[in-house]
Amino acid sequence: MKFLFLYLLLLISYLASGQEFAGKWFSKDRTRIYHIYKKGDEFEAILEKSSRISDKEGVIILRQVIQVGKKKRYKGSIYAADSPISTTAKIRFAEDGRVLYLRLRRMFFINVTIKWYRSIENQPTQLRAPIESFK
Question: Which residue numbers in the chain have pLDDT < 50?
Answer without folding.
Answer: 3-19, 122-135
